[in-house]
Each structure stands twice: as C-alpha cells, then as structure tokens.
Fold this sequence. Notes:
The structure is a single chain. By secondary structure, the protein is α/β, with parallel strands linked by helices. It has helices spanning 10-24, 59-74, 95-107, 125-129, 132-138, 144-149, 158-166, 170-175, 179-193, 205-220, and strands spanning 2-7, 31-36, 82-89, 115-120. The protein has 2 domains: 2-124 and 202-220, Rossmann fold, CATH 3.40.50; 130-196, no CATH class. Helix content is 49%, strand content 12%. It has a 4-stranded parallel beta sheet, with helices on both faces. The longest helix is centred in the N-terminal third of the chain and has 16 residues, at 59-74. It is globular and about 50 Å long.
Amino acid sequence: MHFEILVEDQSGKKALDILIPKIIGNGNAHTFNVHPYKGIGRIPTDLKTDTIDVRKRILLNRLPKLLQGLGKTFAQYPKNYAAVIIVCDLDDKCLKTFRAELDKILNSCNPKPATCFCIAVEEGEAWFLGDIPAIKSAYPKAKNKVLNTYKNDSICGTWECLANAVYKGGAVALSAKGRQAVGLEKSRWAENISPHMDIDNNKSPSFNYLRRKLQELLTSS
C-alpha cells in the first residue's frame, strides 16, 4: 500500500520519516511520502473557492484542493492501493468540531480519496511525551519531575512542557530566542527522540490512533 502523508511543519516530517517505517515495516511492500507544510492555517469558508497563494504552503488552507486532487489521482489506482494521512495539531480547538470540519472537506470530494485524519492532542510533542523512556534515551539529563507531572494528551502547553524537561532554561529561555529558534529545536527533538520510540508502548492516545489506523489500512489492502 502507498501513503501520502500531509503534515503541518518540518518537525512533523522529521518525526514521521522515522516513525512511519516502524509502523508499516521497512521492506518494499509498502511506501510513503511525507509532505511538510509551513503551518496549519485555517479551513476556507468556501471549499470550492481557491484564493490562497499556493506558494505559502499552508496545510488547512490548501486541504480542499489537495484532497480533491488526490481523489482524482487515486481513482486511477487499484482499490485500497493508496490512502491520505493528514497529521496536524489540535492546539486549542475543539476535537469534535475540528473533526467534523475535516470530514466536511473530505465529503465534498468526488471522487473521495481514502483518508485518515490523525490529530495530535494538543501538539506533536505529545507523542514524544507518551514515551518517556525514549526522551530519557535521547536526553539522559531530562528532568523527571517535569516529565512525571505531564498528563498524556492534555491541553497544557505541550511543547513548553518538553522544553522545560530537556532544554536549558526551559520554555522561557527557548521562547525568548523567537519562533524560528523554537521551530529548529522542535526539529531537533524529532530527530533525537523518534529513533528511540517504541511504537507499541506509547501512552499518547492520539499517537496510538495513528498507529492503529495505519495498521487497519494495511490489513484492508
């Protein structure tokens, strides 16, 4: 089976490039591409109107056109050959409402591509915090007091929590360096922590949802 995976930023791509083979296998039976965007953006009010500058590569703004295009492309392939996986952060949105909005985009497509929406709650760093042994392997001096007080998939300032555990000076010091520095550090976390992650022993419900959905798609192919 082939997966086209859309993710909102470079740190997400770095993590998924490492994690997806752990889930679907490293052989030649299954393939995937991870496409990073430059932010999550927002869903357009009019799903049929495309007034967004494609060069800006903002995920949700482009999603209606992306899914429409992939639906037409996948229609040329054998049934159950390909699927789209959308990976994005929940941030402070209502999960139920957000899923309904995403489903509305998908249902507007004709033909409709096989699609799974995998939402990290609250942020992608929740998946790292779901595997504390992996964090400790990558950052042996990580602060246990911070890690042990984190509640999985809680809305609590997830990346800040990880920064407080592994970054000198914590989230305050990292934030003071600006958004670009935060983005670069998130990419380092992805590169350093993901190789140590045990996909079958993660305490993040949203990570387990991604793993389960991918495996379900594989069994149906």
